[in-house]
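Lecture 7 notes. Example A: sequence first, then its structure tokens.
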Amino acid sequence: MMDRKCFIDWGKSKDSVILITEGDSLTRCIVTDIEKVPPQSKVYLEEGYPHYLLYQLLEKDCEIFLCDTRVVKKYREQHNIEKSDKNDAKILFVLHQEQPGLFHRLERPSEQKIMFNFLMAKYRFYRNIVQNLKQNMTSYRQEFGKAPQFKETIKRFQKKKRDIIKKASRYIEEEYRKVKDIRGIGKRILCRLLAVAHPKDFPSLSKFLIYCGYKGICKETGKYNRRAKGVARNMVMCLLRHRNQKYYPLYKEIKADFKDKHPNYSKGRIDGMARNRIATLLLKEIYNRMTPSLVEAPSNQ
């Protein structure tokens, strides 16, 4: 079987232009959906492709090679070529013929990250649908009584969520092994955290905590990831619900300490402060377990 290559220029509002070659000969040019790319092809693209399109190609066992979009633009301008999807796909073909070194392969870690992030985006999509359905079901019940049609639909989307987490968890086995002894932290909640804030993406613990919204400076600037902070709150709820042997007693102790220091504060405020403290300690532990090489050795003092 000859080596099949596809040179693709993606159209945002229309189908993609796909040039298909067998060996070094251009055999055909088609304008179609990217799902029509033959399986196990070598695919050549400009950088900056949406993750959901790359995911579709990876699912078909395609090898993906990327070229800096500025190179394509420069070639087009130097040769006075009109900008179009078809011309850009042809430029990718010519560049590969003349300077194959301009393309770099999408490496395995990047592939796994793309597939994981795509799955978690789908998970958030279905989770939002379920939340909206539950809200509508409550309103429907108040107005009309029973709502069996809502229940069945919610069950179907809940199953989709479980199936997605099952797929996504394959990409975090290494990370999960490092934290699975923390009672209350399961694969689902860990997937949600890593999808928005993976410790290995941060050069320091401080930057990780700031991004998640658990540093004092975050109150002043308001600059942090709301989704990451929400996941951290849910993680604390999981710890307390499972009576985590380390964090549950600590939560009670911190709560009592805050109550003594701030007798005028409401119960809700005291509880929120204690949970924030637990969230900070938990995020520190997760970061330190997943990035041992980045953590400074403890002082003997």
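Example B, a different protein, same format:
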Amino acid sequence: MNNTIGERAEMVDYVIEMFLDMYSSFNKDQIIRIDERRTTKIARNILIQANLTREKQKKYKDSLAAQLILELYLESRKL
């Protein structure tokens, strides 16, 4: 991660623009972009520190990453 916009982020920007063109009742300020690239790695580290088995880590990794993304969103709303 070198603070550049990657190909997927550019695709997301394109989809957002298409969405806004289709639904004029929304504006760009209502779209919140969250950088979630590191959430899976953070979730994995949390589960390792909790001494969970690999099987349980695999089971809970995605839901914990989703929780972290939600927390990032909620924190962004506090500002």
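Note on Example B: The chain has two domains: 1-31, 35-79. The first helix runs from residue 7 to 22.
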